[in-house]
Amino acid sequence: MADEKRYQQGLAKLSELDPNAAEHLKASFQSICPELADFIIAFPFGEVLSRDGLDFQTRELATISALTAMGNCQPQLASHIQGALRIGCKPQQIVEVILQMAVYAGFPAAINGMTTAKQAFEAEGILPPETA
Question: Is residue 111 in a domain?
Fold first, then answer.
């Protein structure tokens, strides 16, 4: 397993987004590559997202931007949108970040991102900003 301190920091940070996320990660990869879940917990969450310099909300908005721009990460994008909502990001902030990606990543990426955001809002019982 990765460095225990980073791993524990990662568990704590990931739990802020979703208390069940680590358990789901471990179950997803247990039969094929359990180390992948450990790496995800220890490095992105334990090392990078736990750093000082940016608050967690800002980091999640940046993550939403990147996943939207990639255009092919809808499951991960949905998870990060739901997590961002749980840590206090506003639906309007998420919509604006995704809309901005139309300029930098193209309309197809923004359309996919906005569709994913709409589904994530619905899953969280949140009305889209324009109807809230």
Answer: yes
**Cβ–Cβ < 8 Å for 79, 19:** no
Is residue 85 a contact partner of residue 50, using CB atoms and an 8 Å limit? no
Q: Note whether residue 19 is domain-resident.
A: yes
pTM > 0.70: yes or no = yes
63 and 30 in a common domain: no
Spatial distance between the Cα atoms of 17 and 35, rounded to a whole number of angstroms:
21
Euclidean distance between the first and final Cα of the chain, in Å? Answer: 44
- The predicted-structure confidence for 30-89, as pLDDT tens digits, reads as follows 999 999 999 999 999 999 999 999 999 999 999 999 999 999 999 999 999 999 999 999
Sign, CA torsion 45/47/50/55 = negative
Q: How many CB atoms lie within 10 A of CB 104?
A: 11
Residue type, 110: A
What integer is the mean pLDDT of 82-107?
97
